[in-house]
Amino acid sequence: MRITAIEPRRKGQSALFIDGEFVMNLDTQALLENRFDVGRELDDDELKEMIDLSNERRAKEKALWLISYRDHSKKELKEKIQRTCDSDAAEKAVERMEELGLVNDEVFAQRYARKLLLQKKMTRRAAVFELTRKGIDKETAEAVLEEIDVDYRDNIREIIEKKYRNLGDEKIKRRAVAALQRLGYGWDDIRAVLDEYEEE
């Protein structure tokens, strides 16, 4: 097999042509670093190696791009990278990000737990579910959440004040109760706060 053309494409990719036929788009930097030039003869093993290197490079670039926007857990990052790269390349990219200290499940869990409890006003039970969905093990999730002091009834009041002010309307009251239950609040806490509003 002989490389007959390499044509630039978008997003740091180049089209590789072998024996006059388009084969695939590969990472331009990986092609340059490995001296994949027009006229070079190569075998199946060399092409496979080049594809792997290209995938790994793309996976690392994708990982860096994703974590530049916000924190990710290892599981979440790998799943997102796998949408554009193979599983092995995604795994290696996540491992590299962890080595560089750019991905850390415990730090992610601490930050995300604060957001879930203090901004989204979830209960600990709902937050544990959300953290485990992101790939954080249950013990870590529970330990991290235990460190955050939250008053559930204050949260319920805040949610009602923000979204469900007219509790005299039965329909709005039912919507408020359903929304609070979805966030994980127990009926005792919900009823206690609703009673306060009725007393007013």
Judged by helices, strands and strand pairing, the structural class is mainly alpha
Cα-to-Cα separation, first versus last residue: 83 Å
Radius of gyration: 26 Å
Note the run of SSEs as H and E: EEEHHHHHHHHHH
Mean pLDDT: 88
Instruction: Assign a percent range to the helix content.
Output: 55-70%
CATH architecture identity of the largest domain:
Orthogonal Bundle
CATH fold assignment of the largest domain: Arc Repressor Mutant, subunit A
CATH homologous superfamily designation of the largest domain: Winged helix-like DNA-binding domain superfamily/Winged helix DNA-binding domain
| Low-pLDDT sequence parts | none
Strand content: 5-15%
Q: Total number of β-strand segments?
A: 3
Tertiary shape: elongated
Main sheet: strand order: 1-2-3
Number of domains: 3
CATH class of the largest domain: Mainly Alpha
The biggest beta sheet is recorded as: 3 strands, antiparallel
SS field, number of helical segments: 10
What distinguishing features does this structure have?
3 domains, 3 strands, mainly alpha, 200 residues, Arc Repressor Mutant, subunit A
Molecular structure report:
By secondary structure, the protein is mainly alpha-helical. It has 3 domains: 3-99, Arc Repressor Mutant, subunit A, CATH 1.10.10; 105-146, Arc Repressor Mutant, subunit A (Orthogonal Bundle); 152-199. Helix content is 62%, strand content 10%. The chain contains 10 helices and 3 strands. It has helices spanning 28-33, 44-69, 74-81, 87-99, 105-119, 124-133, 138-146, 152-163, 170-182, 187-199, and strands at 3-8, 13-18, 21-27. It has a 3-stranded antiparallel beta sheet. A hairpin with a 2-residue loop joins strand 2 (13-18) and strand 3. Helix 5 packs antiparallel against helix 6, helix 6 (124-133) crosses helix 7 (138-146) and helix 8 (152-163) packs across helix 10. The termini are far apart.
